[in-house]
Design a protein that fits this description.
- The structure is a single chain.
- This protein is of the alpha+beta class.
- 42% of the residues lie in helices and 10% in strands.
- It has a four-stranded mixed sheet, covered by helices on one side.
- Strand 3 and strand 4 form a beta hairpin.
- Helix 2 runs antiparallel to helix 3 and helix 3 crosses helix 4.
- It binds FE2/S2 (inorganic) cluster.
- The site of FE2/S2 (inorganic) cluster has 12 residues, from helix 5.
- FE2/S2 (inorganic) cluster (FES) binds next to helix 5.
């Protein structure tokens, strides 16, 4: 028996947005090929960290569909990729704000007033450590290897050292 389609314009189901633009896709494919060229074909998983880094450089974070792609290229399960990505704080599993501010509150920085600096930042940005909005992600972090120039923080992995309130205000003023 023939089933009639409902009358009216036919609407195709919406397609999911592709993960990459054509330009990003080219960079991803070339990057993965370059990474895998460093490892034997039966040890592709050894390229996990740079592959995740590549994904994050292209998208600003590690979206699930990107991690599935990494898994496919490295011939591992998506769960394995997630395990690795979630172990390291430098990989973002949620889309971060435009500026990721990592404040070191480890010993040397703590002795030089990091807690007060963090409280000041929380106040200025209207965020608690661990929170994010579209513009900022504010995080408390472990030693940033700048103990001799404490207190310090990173904005999108760029170091700012020997901070004072005035220097911190300068850093914030440059974040448009
Ligand atoms: S304790 Fe802050 S950089 Fe080492």
């Amino acid at each position: 028996m023939l089933t009639r389609l409902p009358s009216g314009p036919y609407e195709a189901p919406a397609m999911a947005e592709p993960l990459f633009t054509p330009e990003e896709q080219k960079k991803f494919d070339a990057g993965i090929a370059e990474i895998l060229s460093h490892y034997p074909s039966d040890r592709k998983s050894a390229g996990m960290l740079p592959a995740l880094r590549l994904l994050q450089d292209l998208k600003g974070w590690c979206p699930p569909e990107g991690m599935r792609l990494v898994a496919k290229h490295l011939e591992v399960t998506p769960e394995r990729v997630y395990e690795v990505a979630s172990f390291y704080v430098m990989y973002h599993l949620k889309k971060p704000g435009k500026y990721v501010i990592d404040v070191c509150t480890n010993l040397s920085c703590a002795l030089w007033g990091a807690e007060k600096m963090l409280a000041y930042l929380e106040d200025r940005l209207g965020l608690k450590a661990g929170e994010a909005n579209e513009k900022y992600t504010l995080r408390e972090t472990e030693c940033l290897a700048s103990c001799g120039t404490a207190p310090c923080l990173q904005v999108n992995e760029e170091h700012h050292e020997s901070l004072t309130k005035a220097k911190l205000d300068d850093v914030l003023a440059k974040l448009a």
